[in-house]
Amino acid sequence: MTSAIAVAGLRKSYGDHAVLDGVDLDVPRGTVLALLGSNGAGKTTVVRILSTLLRADGGTATVNGFDVAGQPEQVRGSISLTGQFAAVDQVLTGRENLVLMARLRHLDDAGRVAGDLLTRFDLTDAADRRVATYSGGMRRRLDIAMSLVGDPPVLFLDEPTTGLDPQSRTAVWATVRELAGSGTTVLLTTQYLDEAEQLADRIAILHRGRIIVEGTLAELRRLLPPATVEHVEKQSTLEEVFLAVVGSGGQAGR
Amino acid sequence: MSAGHAVRDTRRLVGRSLRHVLRSPDTIITTAVTPIAMLLLFVYVLGGAIDVGGAEYVTYLLPGILLITVASGVAYTAFRLFTDVSTGIVERFRSMAIARSALLWGHVVTSVVANLVSVVLVVLVALLMGFRSGAGVLAWLAVAGILVLFTLALTWLAVVPGLTATTVDGVSGFSYPLVFLPFVSSAFVPTESMPGPVRWFAEHQPVTSIVDALRALLTEQPVGSAGWTAVAWCLGLLVVAYVWAVRTYRRTVS
Ligand SMILES: Nc1ncnc2c1ncn2[C@@H]1O[C@H](COP(=O)(O)OP(=O)(O)OP(=O)(O)O)[C@@H](O)[C@H]1O
Ligand SMILES: [Mg+2]
């Protein structure tokens, strides 16, 4: 079994609005998949179904070999989720948030785990301040750090770097690369196409309820004829590919 | 998920939410202030005109005031839960391998502890105002038991708006009728003084039997059937509120 995430024919509707209309995805172990899509395309919906927060109307999904609908307990034991909006406890300090996560994941050395993550995410100075006093970017960094507690084999990151400054974004990228290098499977959604170019082994574009293209960056580029500028062949950017496949209007079907 | 896990997770989440209470002790004090103000108003301003048949009015009044304390205190429980829902903490916990019940029990246990502290504050003020009781240890234990049951019942009731409210105002609104109920009971004046229909309502609503039972225990009178009626009301409320809360919780999961 080599897929960390396997999704087939996933469907979800709200009323008569079919948000997901047969989504297929396959993420091999230890790889990074970037899920792209316009606002409202259903990226968060996919992530919420895979992390057992939302039930699909149809189709199947397994995460780390466990069925999302049938074995949610085991799925939860295999994953970690960084949702689209930072979910941190504002009354506690940054350190207390991390220690709480470590305890809830039944780790023995909660204090050390927390200390390491604070250092990695450049939060040591603010560690013992209440999160209510953190800036938006600091909260987001803490939020991501909280998801890394306990080294879960599968990580979902829903727009992890939205609102981060360039240094923090680079730091998150480095962390994701490091995690992928050590065998963690990452599914991330993003609005930044350069982020997908930088991080992803494979890229999938979700549009009108389906995955309309999926492949490596090189494969996606082959979808477009290379533009020839002053006799120098210029490779198309992911942005050009994205706009070409979803149409430059860019809006999901609403 | 083993019961041992559930207990451990609950303990950690109780620790977390107790910390919330400790960091805003004003919630405990605010909970106690209104009932204390009522105690002062009724004993020193209105009490002279109220005939309760010989007993010290403060002693007569205290049981009802304690119920009002709990009824207003559970609003903070609803508020803390609402905050967890709206900041995404609940989603984070639900995507983790934490016992499902732990999150709610964490809030419920904290609610009981915080409300009992407020209740003790009110009793201390009553003592300063001349409240005296010759009740023995068993009677005091019975008083504490009834108050804990009552707090548990109202806390589970508070879970429902905590989970479903969409605005902060909506969260605490549910406690107004609870605070009002003691006014139409034997808490402030004997029900015999009320006109027919009002008296009928007062004598058949839970607060009267609970107040009568507490008063009998504190004044060393025979408790009679009021004791069992009080316990039955508390248990009945508790079961209904618990089932309602757990159903609401499950429904918000899908
Ligand atoms: N609870 C809900 N009730 C009704 N419609 C919903 C609900 N949740 C999501 N939707 C709809 O589902 C669609 C997909 O939403 P989703 O949040 O998955 O999009 P997204 O790709 O993550 O968008 P964004 O890039 O803006 O985060 C949207 O049209 C949204 O309005
Ligand atoms: Mg989204």
From TrEMBL, chain A:
Extent of the signal sequence: none
One Pfam family named in its UniProt record: ABC_tran
Keywords, alphabetical: Antibiotic resistance, ATP-binding, Nucleotide-binding, Transport
Sequence similarity: Belongs to the ABC transporter superfamily.
Residue ranges of domain ABC transporter in the record: 5-233
Organism the protein comes from: Goekera deserti
GO process annotations (BP): response to antibiotic
Protein name from the UniProt record: ATP-binding cassette domain-containing protein
Membrane topology: Peripheral membrane protein
Domain of life: Bacteria
GO cellular-component term (any): plasma membrane
Subcellular location: Cell membrane
Chief location of this protein within or outside the cell: membrane
GO molecular function, one term: ATP binding
From TrEMBL, chain B:
Keyword annotations from UniProtKB, A to Z: Antibiotic resistance, Cell membrane, Membrane, Transmembrane, Transmembrane helix, Transport
InterPro entries, sorted: ABC2_TM (IPR013525), ABC2_TM_bact-type (IPR047817), ABC_2_transport (IPR000412), Nod_factor_ABC_transporter (IPR051784)
Main location: membrane
A GO molecular-function descriptor: ABC-type transporter activity
GO CC term (a single one): ATP-binding cassette (ABC) transporter complex
Record membrane topology: Multi-pass membrane protein
TM stretches of this protein: 21-45, 57-82, 103-131, 137-159, 171-189, 226-245
Residues annotated as domain ABC transmembrane type-2: 26-252
Swiss-Prot/TrEMBL GO biological process terms: response to antibiotic
Cellular localisation: Cell membrane; Membrane
Family named by the database record: Belongs to the ABC-2 integral membrane protein family.
Protein name in UniProt: Transport permease protein
Organism from which the protein derives: Goekera deserti
